[in-house]
Write a structure and sequence with these properties.
The chain is α/β, with parallel strands linked by helices and 324 residues long. The protein contains twelve helices and eleven strands. Helix content is 36%, strand content 15%.
């Protein structure tokens, strides 16, 4: 039987590795896996469509679809999910202790359309009582200057976003030119352990668990995008890939359940799995639309309210759901 050859670009996740390295196969498909850095994947696929199937920023994907770009579609497969109350940074010694104190302050973001920032701003608006126009927003690269928005924005009235091309967020925060930074990737002065930059909310884990219990939102960062022309020509591809991603995820979960070895170099893996199971249930990393509806609908609402999406979208408009 002739197999359809597809190229897939994806970060190196344990829960997708069996698929990208050929230990698990997608029926009818010969998959050529590319493991690249995430920013390279996003840039090259968004701009040039260099491969057939790609990990993609949920924020950028939904923005493009809201602006009428139907050249790509997506599977409700979510390789990256991260709560984001941990991604708000301030200078050491800052007087800022609570989210409400960000009113009137200067906050930097790597891109307005970065998925993590969309969730963080959504939390400020929905749960901290802050309005977007009560904050002065700045956009720049996290640790290197020159980063720019990759999608067109439609900012709400009264919201000002100032691009900064010649400085980084890290440098601006250290110099006191920003009061806080919201970023998926931490500023360098946080990563290097110097202590010059710290998290605004050191108790983020407890806050994030409470956020989940109140809202049912388990933030989705990335989706699996496919060139729409491939799905039109071979509709079965979507269900084949979806099933393969699900099998790879289950294989990863089984590996991590082993208590008498260390599948990854970190302690208390089985305890972390117990926490995930307690919070989210037996399938604690679900794919598909229905198990993730609360998260998907909340994100699309945030993205529209913040001007990343140009119209309100529904999950069914932008995802194929072969898992139903």
């Amino acid at each position: 039987m002739n197999q359809l050859q597809l190229t897939l670009a994806l970060s190196d996740y344990d829960h997708t590795r069996d698929l990208t390295r050929g230990r698990i196969a997608a029926d009818g498909i010969r998959l050529v896996g590319l493991e690249l850095q995430i920013e390279e994947i996003f840039h090259r696929f968004t701009r040039y469509r260099e491969w057939d199937v790609s990990e993609m920023s949920f924020g950028k994907y939904s923005s493009m679809r809201s602006q009428g770009d139907d050249s790509i579609t997506a599977l409700p497969v979510f390789p990256s999910r991260v709560f984001r109350l941990s991604s708000i940074y301030v200078r050491r010694g800052s007087d800022l202790r609570r989210l409400e104190q960000l009113r009137g302050k200067r906050i930097g973001v790597p891109e307005w359309a970065q998925t993590a920032a969309i969730y963080s701003r959504g939390y400020l608006a929905r749960h901290a009582g802050l309005k977007l126009d009560e904050i002065r927003w700045f956009q720049a690269g996290v640790n290197q200057p020159g980063r720019a928005e990759k999608v067109a924005l439609r900012l709400p009235p009264g919201v000002a976003l100032t691009p900064v091309r010649d400085q980084s967020l890290n440098a601006m925060l250290l110099a006191g030119e920003l009061d806080a930074v919201m970023s998926a990737h931490p500023p360098q002065a946080f990563e290097d352990g110097s202590g010059d930059i710290v998290r605004l909310l050191p108790d983020f884990m407890q806050r994030e668990e409470e956020y989940w219990r109140v809202t049912g939102i388990f933030p989705i960062m990335h989706v699996i995008a496919i060139k729409a022309e491939i799905v039109r020509a071979h509709p079965w591809v979507a269900s084949s890939l979806y099933a393969a991603f699900e099998r790879a995820k289950q294989a990863s979960i089984e590996r991590l359940k082993v208590n008498d070895s260390s599948p990854i170099p970190a302690l208390y893996i089985s305890d972390a799995i117990d926490v995930s199971s307690r919070m989210f249930g037996r399938d604690y990393w679900p794919y598909g639309i229905d198990p993730n509806r609360s998260t998907l609908e909340a994100f699309l609402r945030y993205a529209y309210e913040q001007g990343t999406c140009h119209r309100m979208l529904t999950p069914e408009e932008i995802f194929i759901d072969p898992g139903k």
